[in-house]
Amino acid sequence: MDAGVASEQGYPPRAHAWYAVGLFYVAVVLSYVDRQIMSYLVGPIRAHFAINDFRFSLLHGFAFVIFYSTFALPIARLTDRYNRRVIVVAGITLWSLMTMACGLANSYTELFLARLGVGIGEAVLTPAAISIIADSFPPDRRALPVAFYTSGVHGGSAIANIVGGLVVGFIMAGGLAGASLLGSLAGWQAVFVLVGVPGLLFAPLLLTIAEPRRQGRLAQSNVSFRQLLSYLGAHRRAYLSTIFGGAFSAMSGSAASAWVPALFARKYGWPPSAIGPTFGAIMLCCGTVGPLIGGWICGRLARAGRVAAPTEVMIVCMCCAVLPAGALIAVHSPYWTLGCLAMMSLLGTPLGLAQVAIQAMTPNEMRAQLIALYLLIVVLFGSAIGSSAVAALTDYYFKNDADIGSSMAIVSGGAAVLSALSFLSGLSAHRGAMARTLVDAGPAVADNGIGQRAV
């Protein structure tokens, strides 16, 4: 299908659709740089505020999650009704400003509040981006662009590691001592200010993409929250298994990656300038290639008639991820540890494919809201529970900072098992839901579960 045909069918020209995907990829990279840079600041922030790993994890995950979860659904309801480009631009601007505010914090409470603001801004991006991407590509061609977009999670984490390791190493060594504007800040504060600037410069570029026509709309387009819950309840097994499968997958990945700088510093004596570029390069390669391969396989299976292709691919990936995650407890070489992390990153496709499955089962008016619900739970399990569970095991069970690798293995390996089981439990339901809804298949499609038909 060429660009002209796609446009005639109501979708944007293929080149413009991929241009939008590319901009959203950059946006998600920036969001994860802002979100993950704290992983390289464990030591200086703990020392500055005299806190332990668990209290640090509340800044890194819990503070972010509180407002992310509070604002995700209300913002998604706006996204399902109003101009999505403008909403995304506002979100990027807000989280960039709040990241810079983290660098101006002078107390634990101020830093906590600034992290809350980052959560509000980042709650905007993915529901709007997935909604626009779904309206820019035909159903059987969405898996690859969605997978490319979500690979920005790994790209962002990779850049956060590469740039974070080098910048943190440079600044903490006194590299800004003579700077007039930033020299008066503590090193970790200057890092936050610097990483917030690119988002402010990038945000206006999102206004250059077209707002695509919404595909698969209901005959009654104003869907109430009660109708949303009714639809979710009608297909609860398919949705809940996908949502929690993705959440446990995120928990597995976050439990490992969030503490990699601390692990290598404590166990192997690697400084940020060594582990940052090394781990970042691994994530950039494996974390980008893995989701793209998964998306490509999923697209081939979908065109071959496998309606539950995303779920099938996710089950295989999470079953394979159990071994390298659990092996973190047994390996005692930095290079074997990096190998385990590389395999986990390569198999990290569920984060994106779960969104492919959700938007494929969902009418247009509900997509952003259900994606927001999915992300709410993913962020809760990944950024908050996963990170804090590792910290709690280290502080209160092992009671030894050097045992953080064992904590990572227990949480990450256990979450991978739960993810695979969750996806498997909903496989048949997912097949049934896909067969019933077909929300983007054409003008005469099946009942969607709330008494309306997609048109």
Could you characterize the architecture of this molecule?
The chain has 455 residues and is mainly alpha-helical. It has a single domain, classed as MFS general substrate transporter like domains (Growth Hormone, Chain: A). Helices cover 74% and strands 0% of the residues. It has helices at 3-8, 14-36, 42-49, 53-79, 84-102, 108-122, 125-134, 143-172, 187-202, 225-234, 236-257, 260-267, 272-303, 309-327, 334-346, 350-361, 364-398, 404-425, 427-437. Helix 2 (14-36) packs parallel to helix 8 (143-172) and helix 5 (84-102) runs antiparallel to helix 6 (108-122). The longest helix is centred in the C-terminal third of the chain and has 35 residues, at 364-398. The chain is globular, with a radius of gyration of 21 Å. Residues 1-8 and 438-455 have low confidence and may be disordered.
Distance between the termini: 22 Å
Sequence stretches where pLDDT stays below 50 over 5 or more residues? 1-8, 438-455
Number of helices: 19
Mean of residue pLDDT values: 81
Short description:
The protein is mainly alpha-helical. The protein is 74% helix and 0% strand. α13 (272-303) packs parallel to α15 (334-346).
Which characteristics define this entry?
455 residues; 0% strand; 19 helices; mainly alpha; Growth Hormone, Chain: A; disordered C terminus; 74% helix
List the helices and strands and how they pair.
Layout lengths: L2 H6 L5 H23 L5 H8 L3 H27 L4 H19 L5 H15 L2 H10 L8 H30 L14 H16 L22 H10 L1 H22 L2 H8 L4 H32 L5 H19 L6 H13 L3 H12 L2 H35 L5 H22 L1 H11 L18
Helix pairs in contact: 2-5, 2-7, 2-8, 2-9, 4-6, 4-17, 5-6, 5-7, 5-9, 7-17, 8-9, 8-13, 8-16, 11-16, 11-17, 11-18, 11-19, 12-13, 13-14, 13-15, 14-15, 14-16, 14-18, 17-18
